[in-house]
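Re: that backbone. Tokens:
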């Protein structure tokens, strides 16, 4: 047996020995779901666990995030294992928090559990004595881009600078010194990786004039402007066929208060997604023209606010190979393909991928429909222990000995954006426009954003 194989076997054995502890953590996080930037109990439990392993923890990063570092025997690259903390809001889920409606209908409770399980395995096995470099355990809040108005308010108050937790962690320095980032998402279909869309968020506020609904001639119906806009989007959807990854979807958050008053305000939220941000820009411009045109048609005004969501994710090819090797070691009888796919969804792991090589793998152990009322834990051992083993084994492969494999992958960070470049690029998508602004881009496209 090679020495590295002995180290990996020791890590697997150490994680198995912690089975009860890891399963208990997974159960705790499942039963205590919290939404983004408010994961206080989750963060406290994660911090307590990391400290029990002898690590110093930097708390309150990006409100509820944290980072703890574990040093190897010799200098080398830094590989980070990430653990998402937040839940979704789905009040109809049978296992949601009855007071808040929060539930881990995307499986993030398994992500933070796996991060902590990997930490246990690396510490208890003594594996760090055979590694060069450092392992960072980073708890990441607010991956689910929900409660847009609340997050905009937090931004206005200076509490955060970005919608997503990893984006915010980049800005506050939590990823400083990290060369490679690893995280595996809970799933139902087995093992693999998926690249993801990027997106921007839109808030649209149509402004009309109220009057008695039985005499509507003196008013301007903001709800009608919004209705026209939604139909206008439907009319241009055929143009999205140029790129199969484009997704435009939204909700109406307010449309009037009482039925016998013409609504003077109507608000909507939209996500605009595609596999590259230049395409997102094109869709964003199309969207703004539809909103402005609908407002103009009924005599209303409109304010369109655009905020950068997440960047597209491209998983690192060599990290995928290391992921495949780890799967084979953990489940030698696994006979399904461990390949690469594409998700029309989005993740703020894409933002981390702008500045370093990353992998956002998927593991098994959940059942039902993600983001739906049937999504729940199916196989806790696969969900928590196997996920922890995957992360820990990948770190061993990257950093063992002189960390040759890790150094090779970390060197690709030189081809990525710097943190400063990433922030400037992300901020370039943020704008607030009215009808006149949009018309200016139509009349004088050379002056457009």
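Recovered sequence:
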């Amino acid at each position: 047996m090679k020495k590295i194989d002995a180290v990996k076997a020791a890590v697997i054995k150490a994680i198995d020995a912690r089975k009860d502890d890891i399963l208990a953590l997974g159960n705790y996080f499942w039963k205590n779901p919290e939404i983004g930037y408010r994961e206080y109990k989750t963060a406290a439990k994660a911090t307590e666990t990391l400290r029990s392993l002898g690590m110093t923890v930097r708390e309150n990063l990006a409100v509820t995030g944290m980072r703890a570092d574990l040093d190897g025997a010799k200098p080398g690259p830094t590989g980070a294992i990430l653990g998402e903390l937040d839940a979704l809001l789905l009040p109809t889920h049978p296992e949601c928090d009855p007071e808040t409606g929060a539930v881990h209908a995307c499986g993030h409770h398994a992500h933070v559990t796996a991060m902590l399980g990997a930490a246990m395995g690396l510490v208890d096995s003594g594996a760090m004595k055979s590694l060069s470099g450092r392992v960072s355990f980073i708890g990441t809040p607010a991956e689910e881009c929900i409660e847009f108005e609340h997050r905009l308010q937090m931004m206005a108050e200076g509490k955060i600078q970005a919608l997503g937790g990893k984006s915010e962690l980049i800005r506050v320095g939590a990823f400083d010194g990290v060369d490679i980032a690893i995280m595996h998402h809970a799933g139902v279909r087995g093992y693999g990786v998926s690249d993801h869309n990027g997106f921007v968020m839109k808030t649209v506020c149509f402004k009309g004039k109220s009057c008695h609904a039985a005499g509507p001639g003196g008013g301007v119906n903001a709800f009608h402007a919004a209705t026209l806009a939604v139909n206008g989007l439907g009319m241009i959807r055929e143009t999205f066929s140029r790129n199969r990854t484009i997704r435009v979807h939204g909700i109406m958050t307010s449309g009037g208060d009482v039925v016998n008053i013409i609504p003077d305000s109507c608000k909507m939220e939209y996500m605009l997604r595609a596999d590259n941000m230049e395409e997102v820009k094109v869709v964003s411009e199309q969207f703004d023209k539809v909103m402005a045109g609908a407002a103009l048609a009924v005599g209303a005004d409109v304010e369109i606010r655009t905020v950068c969501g997440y960047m597209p994710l491209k998983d690192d090819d060599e990290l995928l190979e290391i992921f495949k090797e780890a799967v084979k070691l953990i489940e030698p009888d696994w006979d399904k393909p461990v390949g690469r796919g594409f998700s029309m969804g989005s993740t703020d792991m894409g933002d981390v991928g702008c500045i370093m090589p990353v992998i956002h793998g998927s593991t098994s152990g959940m059942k039902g429909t993600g983001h739906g009322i049937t999504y729940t834990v199916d196989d806790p051992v696969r969900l928590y222990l196997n996920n922890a083993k995957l992360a820990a084994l990948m770190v061993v492969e990257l950093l063992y000995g002189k960390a040759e494999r890790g150094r090779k992958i970390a060197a690709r960070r030189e081809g990525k954006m710097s943190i400063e470049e990433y922030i400037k690029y992300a901020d370039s998508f943020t704008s607030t426009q009215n009808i006149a602004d949009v018309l200016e881009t139509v009349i004088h496209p050379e002056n457009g954003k």
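The chain has a mean pLDDT of 96. The longest strand covers residues 192-207.
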